[in-house]
Design goal:
439 residues, mainly alpha
């Protein structure tokens, strides 16, 4: 009851703040408009749109604050018993996963506190997001001459005019991206305070980057050269005229609407300029099939920023924190473990029907034990018996031929593929994933 009342109070505060901003911040004439004049809705668009994402989140919080978890206390208890059996079978009972004690909830209330943040956390994150977009609306009004003005530097124009233009149009782009993220999280029931605070920080970061791009002309000269058919004699056009063109505005908007691409492009520019020493490369999450940009952003909120982090995460704990289905998370972690060993060559394994670490583990185990492999079905679909590439033989020989083909495609030795299989066979985490897949 208190949380809903607090949300309603904040809603009233938003309405009051927007009214005071519109009513008492005078237009460029220096006075409030007379009451008999018709209202110009364009004067209020920036403020209304600035509050829209926060009002949308607030409405979602009031209407459906409780998130329906896919995993409950009973499921967690069954999972803990299942994991202990796996440890006992694998003789690794001393190697307990980090999350085992964490998952031992006493009651439903403790689980609910993990899945549902406190009302004060929601209110603070909503206020932070609204404040960032209100700052954007102030600069937008000043740039378009609706309310407020930019500092004038005399006959030469205005101070930081192109930087402010880059800030505003980059803010427009990140505004669209933020709305898409919020709607996606609402549908997936994964809207969290971390998402809202991350969105607020992203808005600030991208506006600063847009200001810097506008002032320095970074990316703009290359974009103008690639999309225009200007002759070499016209290459001495003033830079300020070029960046104020429509192409420059499109570049600003694209940087905000695709923040990951914009950030990576900036990193590439900095890497070419500074030439840092080579370091160990992190394997990006894009190597895992099924992870799109929205899911990757959700994982990064939990500190899972690359494949190495995902490969060592407990599947049930990740399902609790993200509210994604457990089977889907098991598949992601299974692929991530194999990607740690094969890196960008994992696509060759997928072409052979080896999707994750458990698949390669089963192949290696079947070869070692001489049992018929369950991957003979996939093997026969991929390799026709009449093509003459592989001779008919036992199931063990066919499995060996499949791993040999994987070694050839990845340009690795068969010994290294067998070493990966042996390591996966002894990995208790892979054994746990295999048991969960069978369940």
């Amino acid at each position: 009851m208190f949380s809903r009342l607090g949300a309603l109070v904040q809603l009233a505060g938003f309405v009051a703040a927007s009214y005071l901003y519109i009513r008492y911040l005078a237009s460029n004439a220096g006075q409030a408009s007379p009451s008999h004049e018709p209202i110009n809705l364009l004067d209020y668009c920036a403020t209304i749109f600035a509050l829209l994402p926060s009002l949308l989140v607030l409405g979602h919080f009031i209407a459906k604050r409780r998130r329906s978890p896919r995993i409950h206390i009973q499921t967690i208890q069954e999972y803990l018993r299942f994991r202990e059996n796996i440890f006992r079978k694998g003789r690794h009972s001393e190697n307990k996963l980090i999350s085992q004690n964490f998952l031992r909830f006493q009651d439903e209330k403790e689980l609910d506190s993990l899945l549902r943040p406190r009302p004060s956390q929601y209110l603070v994150s909503i206020c932070a997001l609204a404040l960032c977009f209100l700052v954007l609306s102030i600069y937008s009004d000043a740039l378009h001459g609706i309310r407020g003005t930019l500092p004038d530097k005399g006959a030469g124009g205005q101070f930081y005019e192109e930087g402010i233009r880059g800030l505003v149009f980059t803010g427009y782009g990140v505004y669209v991206y933020t709305l898409i993220v919020i709607l996606h999280r609402m549908r997936a029931q994964t809207l969290s305070t971390e998402c809202l605070l991350g969105a607020a920080l992203r808005v600030i970061t991208m506006m600063v980057i847009g200001f810097m791009v506008g002032e320095t002309g970074l990316f703009l000269m290359h974009a103008m050269h690639a999309t225009s058919n200007v002759t070499s004699s016209s290459s001495e056009v003033d830079s300020s005229a070029m960046v104020s063109s429509s192409m420059g505005l499109v570049v600003y908007f694209a940087i905000g609407a695709f923040p990951f691409w914009g950030y990576e492009a900036l990193r590439e520019k900095a890497r070419k300029l500074l030439q840092p020493k080579a370091s160990s490369e992190k394997i990006p999450l894009e190597y895992v099939s099924g992870l799109d940009e929205m899911i990757i952003e959700r994982l990064e909120e939990l500190g899972v920023s690359n494949v190495q982090h995902l490969a060592t995460y407990d599947p049930v704990l990740l399902a609790l924190r993200t509210n994604y289905p457990l089977k889907r998370i098991i598949d992601w972690i299974d692929q991530a473990i194999l990607a740690v060993h094969l890196q960008d060559k994992i696509r060759f394994a997928r072409e052979l029907g080896i999707r994750g670490a458990t698949d390669l583990r089963h192949l290696y185990a079947d070869i070692q034990k001489g049992r018929p492999t369950r991957y003979f079905r996939i093997f026969r679909q991929r390799y026709c018996a009449h093509c003459g590439q592989f001779k008919p033989g036992s199931a063990e020989e066919r499995a060996r031929a499949l791993l040999q083909e994987l070694a050839n495609r990845t340009q690795s030795s068969i010994e290294s593929i067998h070493a990966i299989g042996a390591k996966l066979t002894a990995d208790i985490h892979v054994l746990l994933l295999g048991g969960l897949q069978r369940e």
